């Protein structure tokens, strides 16, 4: 089998070819079975998405190596195999990677070590959104630096949402998988009151611009995927503005909308567009990794589904609840948090919940019952395993 991957941002890159057949098969029956399985895989494009990667100081300090530099991969290790096996794997890089020379920082103006970009690419994320309310935290220099940093990963990761020129902004970001071309568009509601120095700098949620982008994307791709940074922080359900934007995307024929920003898990649904098309909308996947300030933002989600050729229908949609775990030497002091990890809710234990570093912070108590109640309330049964 040959797995074909081409990442384009207006330019074509060489195809990456991977052979999975044994060089000298000795057992015909298993080989025939392998060929059949591989043919089935060639007809299926797998998709995986997680939410906000928001890197606080406790996280990058834990990732710091004794010999210098940073390694964030251990935080994501439990999901590395699934991410690498997915044909398309999405994440929102919430904290800008604005260049190490600008100094690392957290709220209100984040800056994450540059090693994060390589680590996420190593883990297997190949769709990365940079359009969020922290896009301009380090100004124009931060934007230029992050574009350079992500540019080093451009042969395996498509990063979009912020731009260095009007010409780059006008290019439709494209990725080709198994002969199918996808457009990847990313937008944010705002940038924390920081005004962009140029109209092309950040993709904002603007109806006129969105209509133009989608129209051009339709002419260049088979399906459109949108990242939408929207909604209210810590709200567990979408507001009317989110629903209006979601319906616009559906009416324009977008295939999938991945929501971020609320730092909470929110529901997902199918919306019917004006032409009768079906659009899958996940209003928010919550945090993937962060030092969260409350228990509601500990619960995130991982979305997976298959896109079946030749009709490109979306099937096997599953939203799995995830839990961010950490411990604390002193629960009242945020900077003492350590041992960050990400777990599936189904694998998380009462013992871990009792050890959670959020217990005792501002009166919080981590409860498995609340996690399961939230997951059952928020995730429609059709999207549970």
Polypeptide structure, described:
Helix content is 27%, strand content 27%. It is α/β, with parallel strands linked by helices and 385 residues long. It has a single domain, classed as Purple Acid Phosphatase, chain A, domain 2 (4-Layer Sandwich), CATH 3.60.21.10. The strands form two sheets. An eight-stranded mixed sheet has the order 2-1-7-8-9-10-12-11, with helices on one face. β5, α6 and β6 form a beta-alpha-beta unit. It is globular, with a radius of gyration of 21 Å. The N terminus is likely disordered.
SSE layout:
Layout: E1 2-8, E2 16-19, H1 28-42, E3 44-53, H2 57-63, H3 73-76, H4 80-85, E4 88-92, H5 115-123, E5 127-129, H6 139-151, E6 158-160, H7 166-170, E7 174-177, E8 180-188, H8 207-220, E9 223-229, H9 240-252, E10 256-260, E11 268-272, E12 278-282, E13 287-289, E14 299-308, E15 313-328, E16 337-344, H10 350-355, H11 368-378
Parallel strand pairs: 3-4, 3-13, 4-5, 5-6, 8-9, 9-10, 10-12
Antiparallel strand pairs: 1-2, 1-7, 3-14, 7-8, 11-12, 14-15, 15-16
Within CATH, the superfamily carries the name Metallo-dependent phosphatases
Strand content: 25-35%
> In the residues, how many domains can be counted?
1
- Distinct helical segment count: 11
Biggest sheet overview: 8 strands, mixed
Sheet/helix structural class: alpha/beta
Strand order of the largest sheet: 2-1-7-8-9-10-12-11
Number of strands: 16
Average pLDDT, all residues:
92
CATH hierarchy class name = Alpha Beta
Point out poorly predicted stretches: 1-28
How do the helices and strands follow one another from N- to C-terminus?
A: EEHEHHHEHEHEHEEHEHEEEEEEEHH
Q: Assign the CATH topology.
A: Purple Acid Phosphatase, chain A, domain 2
Into which percent range does the helicity of residues fall? 25-40%
Q: Assign an overall shape.
A: globular
């Amino acid at each position: 089998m040959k797995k074909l991957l081409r990442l384009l941002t207006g330019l074509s890159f060489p195809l990456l070819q991977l052979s999975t057949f044994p060089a000298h098969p000795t057992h015909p029956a298993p080989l025939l079975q392998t060929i059949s399985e591989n043919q089935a895989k060639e007809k299926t494009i797998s998709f995986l998405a997680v939410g906000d990667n928001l890197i606080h100081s406790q996280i990058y300090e834990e990732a710091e190596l004794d010999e210098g530099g940073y390694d964030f991969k251990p935080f994501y290790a439990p999901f590395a195999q699934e991410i690498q096996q997915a044909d398309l794997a999405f994440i929102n890089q919430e904290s800008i990677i604005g260049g190490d020379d600008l100094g690392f920082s957290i709220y209100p103006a984040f800056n994450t070590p540059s090693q994060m970009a390589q680590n996420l690419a190593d883990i297997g994320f190949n769709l990365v959104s940079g359009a969020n309310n922290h896009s301009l935290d380090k100004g124009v220099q931060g934007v230029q630096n992050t574009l350079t940093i992500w540019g080093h990963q451009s042969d395996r990761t498509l990063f979009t949402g912020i731009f260095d020129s009007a010409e780059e902004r006008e290019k439709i970001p494209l990725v080709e998988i198994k002969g199918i071309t996808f457009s990847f568009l990313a937008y944010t509601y705002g940038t924390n009151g920081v005004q962009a120095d140029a109209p092309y700098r950040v993709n904002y949620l603007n109806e006129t611009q969105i209509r133009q982008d989608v129209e051009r994307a339709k002419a260049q791709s088979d399906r459109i995927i949108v990242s939408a940074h929207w909604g209210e922080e810590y709200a567990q359900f979408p507001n009317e503005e989110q629903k209006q934007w979601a319906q616009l995307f559906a009416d324009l024929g977008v295939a999938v909308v991945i929501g971020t920003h609320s730092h909470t898990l929110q529901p997902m649904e199918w919306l019917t567009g004006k032409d009768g098309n079906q659009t899958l909308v996940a209003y928010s996947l919550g945090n993937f990794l962060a030092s969260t300030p409350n228990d509601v933002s500990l619960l995130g989600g991982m979305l997976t589904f298959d896109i079946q050729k030749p009709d490109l229908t979306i099937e096997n949609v599953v939203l799995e609840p995830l839990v961010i775990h950490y411990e604390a030497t002193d629960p009242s002091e945020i900077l003492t948090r350590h041992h960050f990890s990400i777990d599936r809710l189904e694998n998380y234990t009462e013992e871990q919940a009792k050890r959670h570093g959020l217990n005792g912070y501002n009166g919080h108590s981590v409860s498995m019952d609340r996690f399961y109640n939230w997951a059952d309330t928020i995730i429609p049964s059709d999207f549970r395993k």
